[in-house]
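Task 17 of the worksheet. Students: predict the tertiary structure of the chain below and write it out as structure tokens. Keep your answer in the requested format; marks are given for formatting as well as content.
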Amino acid sequence: MPHGYTGKILHVDLTTGTLTIETPPESFYRTYMGGSAMGLYYILKEMPVGVDALAPENVLTIFTGVTTGASVSGQSRVNLNAKSPISGAIGDSQGGGFFPAELKFAGFDGIVVKGRSSKPVYLWLKDGVAELRDASHLTGKVTGEAEALLKQELGDDKIEVLQHGPAAEKGVLFSSAVSMSNRNNGRTGMGLVMASKNLRAVVVRGTQKPSVADPKALAAINRLGPKWMPDNPDMAGLGKYGTASVVMPQHSMGTLPTRNYNEGAFEFAEEISGETLYEKYLRGAAEGKQDKLGRDTCYACVVRCKRVVELEGKYPVDEKYGGPEYETIGTFGSYCGVKDLAAISRANQICNMYGVDTIACGATLAWAMECYEKGILTPEDTGGLELKFGNADAMLAALEQIVTASTDFGRLLGQGSERAARVIGRGAEECLITVKGAEAPAHMPQAKRSLALIYAVNPFGADHQSSEHDWMIEEGIASDLYLGRMKLLGLENPLPPMSLGPEKVKFAYLTEAFYAMMDSVELCQFVWGPGWTLYGPQETAEMVKAVTGWDVTIEELVRVGERRIHLMRVFNAREGFDRKQDKLPKKFFKALQGEGPTAGIALSHDEIEAALDEYYRLAGFTPDGRPTPDRLTELDLAWAAALL
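Model answer:
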């Protein structure tokens, strides 16, 4: 029997209703390790070139990794991949919670979905048995209602549900897949792909926990987590204040996107900070019990960074729908000039109820606000909404129109800012912050220069979780912990702040490869990683070895990440993507306004073009950004070279 994984992959043809189980060899698992890399293998093998993202021929993959379900922090992750309806490039989205581990316990490492059902269905997996069931009764139900109905129907409160919400039924482009009614596979429109297939949900329950090769070694690694947390200020802050712990550091360093990325500091940052969220808004805060009631976790994780908000009053929030992450606070808060955490928390609930990505949705609203402020959008366009920066009520009203597609304006914004800008014209494209159609997250590449490169080259658009951030290696900022871990990846020396020379490009590529591995092994990037995280590269290799029994090294893990990057680029290349799509929005090349340390800062076209040249050289791509047959063969991907 394999250690760490079940050895079973479920293939679902929704058109015919056929379910088949594949049992790949161990070598297949060691080559790809699960997640995104494994999903890309099936997508490239089974999806025709040039299909529409919402056609039955699009292949949707749902994969855990070889360590998912092990008793250690940060392993309960799942990756969804398919052609993205947003970009037409590869779509990729990660999520956590309890669904990933439960999928493994239900007897499957992953699911490959093709076709389209003639009616809404859900996939029910329990202890190695799979069946499709009617889901017509779930149509139009918000995520919490649908999950409650499924638990009642199946007579088990411990089932886990990954579903699209009613926004996807209405065609909202940036619809997400949601588990636990508050954990999102948010980016790239994977919820809309699920809806296009009439697959409302995947429901899992199981008792088949995979074996572990070395339980004692794994337990020893797991014990290090609670021991190290108090001495790691990043992790202690993450546990207490959640991802919103970075609001104030980002603001103080001028990297908190404000008023649709026009500024890098928000004068009301303290009012939307992780500290304020903890002290006033978490469930139990009034009684001083927020550490127990306001902090949730993923399966077997000691960090407990997930927020739980419960509010009454003008902006009610049900604890079922969780609480806002940093990105949500950024996009619905500082992006929109909104300083009310209750309104931001309400926006988070609406997104989770209807199943939409908070980054894309909040950033689209911020784009619309800038257009309104500049007169590009008028009250006639908005249906009378005074969509100005800082207007929380108008923001929430527009959000309701998006998720319900109840007005022309809501339907327009539901297609994302880039498509909406094409419809509006009148200079609306000058306000965009999109890369490959994806709205940029709340980390500013003007100051974090390597992120500018990663935002440009990332196969599925601007993403903040596809590489390590510049602070991990910059002089005067990086700690000894950060620099020691960087050396394990071959990055010897700290680098000047705001630099983007060859060594910073090397930093970007090597950490991107490590992150790509984590999205294949399926590890939480707040727990495992090359920089600020609870565990570093060496512990990552030791943990994978303890679970699987494979004598893996850091170098082998980085190679897995490189495979994932190259497979994504192969997919994009065959769909017509090359260097021309690896570009940043005009706004990033304009000087930041306002106050703070980054006021007046901008990217330059020359430095980005030079960084692209160096990145392509390091990766082994052609000068126009396409993978080469020789490099693919070196990575044991010769089969993929034929697809070029």
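Marker's comment: Residues 506 and 618 are 7 Å apart (CA to CA). The mean pLDDT is 97.
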